[in-house]
Amino acid sequence: xxxxxxxxxxxxxxxxxxxxxxxxxADIRRPDLRWPFPPDxxxxxxxxxxxRLRRRSKYILADLSTGETLLIHLGMSGRMLVSxxxxxxxxxxFHHDHPAPEKHDHVVLDMENGARITFNDARRFGAMxxxxxxxxxxxxxxxxxxxxxxxxxxxxxxxxARLKDRKMPIKSALLDQRIVAGLGNIxxxxxxxxxxxxxxxxxxxxxxxRCEALVPIIRDVLSEAIEAGGSSLRDHRQTDGExxxxxxxxxxxxxxxxxxxxxxCSATIRRIVQSGRSSFYCPTxxx
Length: 287
What we know:
The protein is of the alpha+beta class and 287 residues long. It has six helices and ten strands.
């Protein structure tokens, strides 16, 4: 499932062609994805102008001129692809040379500037919903989320307070979206390696000083992944169809039995299963 860097990469790819543009036609080609689409979604989207695109955790939020916000969740295999060649004579405008629809193109948004945004989802685990922008914090998918890792509310004292007395492994705690929003399995493995913390260590045993150090490491790993276009392991693509490249920088994730990347360390990377998820770590470097 796409994690924060992949979703942010998609948002950044969509923003230049969607923000400030009117949706001239919203073609909804099936009644549902993971859940049913909201009533009359095509009608409600057609004619609306996209005021801005935001990201909250692993969701893309499009604020519309109608007072509604479109929530987009990519699920396991969802892709948001932009088509239409950009005109050289009129920057920001696109020629209508779009590819033929594919089997799993479920939602197609034609924009006023000629660009086409296609939501393709082979497994149909993605989702879209419409909500009143003013009431978005009460949406069931958003109301339970903790602070964003790049936000001011997420800092060392906050993290230490949320981890205090928790017996669950630190790996599971960082995956809890109620504690911090947007972190997923890949990046938590990489964060814990850089922080030299074992994924098996009880969350409540992480000292405040180590929490202070953990926060900037989380931000660094996520920032580097975003700049690399995310990680493409199976289905993730950027909006132009290109792969992400952060998977080439993995130090532990997916590297079971490979040598540890730490200079002078002779250990190999191990894999264990925690709450049904694979955790990769160095048994020597991470304590």
